[in-house]
Amino acid sequence: MRLRGSNAKPLVVQLQRLLTQYPESSGEVSRSKLTWRCRLRPQSVTDTYLFEIEYRLGRKPIVYVSEGRLAIEQNLDSVPHQYGVLDDGRIQACLDRYDWNKTMFLADSVVPWAMEWALYYEIWLVTGTWQADEAPHRVGSPKNP
Length: 145
Fold this sequence. Notes:
By secondary structure, the chain is of the alpha+beta class. The protein is built from 2 helices and 6 strands, in the order αββββββα. The protein has one domain.
């Protein structure tokens, strides 16, 4: 599906790129929404996390992160740079510091950014300080128009 007069990548093209670059992943396009999931290890010294992306044309992608060290986190609400915790324990990661737009491939932008978020999360566990540049946001208020 492509929006008229836009340079947005069609959802099926986005999904194909994700599946090609991350062959161990899975995803689908249904009812004008792309859903993708993959277990990835951001760095050799980090745990493996489950990354999930939900994306509709005309909106910012939503990124959920779970598993890895998040699975043993006692207070998920205390994790910085997230919009909230779902009932199933997934965190909606805040990637607002990145300048994503509809002409970008999710596989080349959002996935690496999400892995970087998980890396910064692990650094935060050790240091108590979020080492990445910060974008102002409020927990529980995702910026997804």
